[in-house]
Design a protein that fits this description.
This protein is of the alpha/beta class and 336 residues long. The protein has three domains: 130 residues, no CATH class; 85 residues, no CATH class; 82 residues, Arc Repressor Mutant, subunit A. Helix content is 48%, strand content 13%. It has 13 helices and eleven strands. Strands 3-4-1-5 form a four-stranded mixed beta sheet, with helices on one face. The protein has a four-stranded mixed beta sheet with strand order 2-6-8-7. Helix 4 crosses helix 7 and helix 11 packs across helix 12. The longest helix is centred in the middle third of the chain and has 29 residues. The C terminus is likely disordered.
Length: 336
């Protein structure tokens, strides 16, 4: 377990990243190739990426260069996932890797060697030329494996940020921490995280915590190993099952797509336009139009928060769904 200890100052300084971090996604996606755990959630990506890597003759690069530096084990070097601030783009991250002090690179490689074993060539990464070649390998892999799903990743990250915003508005930072997912338990002032590595404590000491949602992270969150680095926790976004299937009478009344939109907003405390689009399998503009029709019919209410619009059921919309479910099941329905 990883126990993260907060002070009042840490709660005030805790933030959630607006997007997935490219280099963390490189690391987590490489982990997906090293286990069958969660393969169902990435099945389409796995098949398409394996094919693409083969077509571009990148299999050996992944197997012999990248996987040994990003093992799905108790440790991989922190310098490979640097924190770059607000400009969390691939090139900013790769630039940060390039300027990492040689001593830190060697120290972290030595730790990797002690824990899981480092490849013999890894020590050459202390040199500028060799590290530049490694960075180029990461860039090529990113283009083949991660870039094709960046739109999906961003859509999911926006939806995740909206969910955390709703928790924050309803319960403050502590409410947000309490809603992070089944692998994290908030009991003030400690966030206990299911962690595959050693049992340890992380004291934030007024630095706050940066939470980064990840598309490719599966089940267990991941933190930087060095407690002196800016505290960071990369956590998995839940992979949701397919959108609920509306009953036939409701589909006949509203049309299947609008009926499904209505059902999606009944899950949790409403849904943003991007969440609806992702769950129903339609574009964001189309989701917005369907929500507008339902809003005009008095079945939804929409409220804007920053760049997101949250759609929730009206009493009339909730009654319609209850009646539809009750009739479909042959009995009255008390609550959705």
């Amino acid at each position: 377990m990883l126990r993260i200890h907060f002070t009042d100052v840490d709660l005030a300084r805790t933030t959630v990243a607006a997007r997935c971090d490219p280099l963390w996604e490189v690391a987590m996606s490489l982990h997906r190739f090293q286990t069958r755990a969660g393969r169902w959630a990435y099945a389409d990506w796995y098949r398409a990426t394996r094919l693409r890597l083969g077509q571009q003759q990148l299999d050996r690069l992944v197997r012999e260069i990248l996987v040994p530096l990003f093992p799905r084990a108790a440790y991989f070097p922190d310098f490979l996932t640097p924190q770059t601030g607000v400009n969390d783009c691939l090139e900013a991250g790769l630039d940060a890797v390039m300027i990492t002090p040689c001593k830190r690179v060697l120290d972290e490689l030595a730790l990797l060697d002690r824990i899981v074993g480092a490849p013999p060539w890894a020590w050459r990464l202390a040199g500028t030329r060799e590290r530049g070649e490694f960075v180029e390998a990461v860039r090529v892999y990113y283009a083949a494996a991660v870039a094709p799903v960046t739109d999906l990743m961003q859509t999911r990250a926006q939806a995740e940020r909206s969910a955390r915003t709703r928790d924050l508005l309803g319960g403050g930072v502590q409410g947000m921490l309490a809603g992070l997912g089944p692998t994290m338990l908030w009991k003030p002032p400690v966030l206990t995280v299911h962690y595959p590595a050693e049992d340890r404590d992380l004291y934030l000491s007024g630095r706050g915590l940066r939470l980064i949602p990840s598309h490719f992270c599966w089940q267990s969150p991941v933190a930087l190993a060095d407690p002196e680095l800016p505290p960071t926790l990369v956590y998995p976004m839940l992979h949701e099952p397919a959108a609920p299937t509306p009953t036939a009478p409701l589909s006949a009344l509203l049309g299947r797509t609008r009926a499904t939109v209505l059902w999606v907003t009944a899950v949790g405390a409403g849904a943003t336009t991007s969440e609806i689009a992702r769950a129903v399998g339609i574009s964001a503009p189309s989701a917005s139009k369907h929500a507008a029709v339902l809003r005009e019919a008095g079945l939804l209410v929409s409220n804007r928060h920053a760049v997101h619009v949250l759609h929730t059921l009206t009493p009339a919309g909730a009654s319609l769904l209850r009646a539809s479910r009750g009739r479909h099941e042959g009995r009255p329905t008390q609550l959705l």
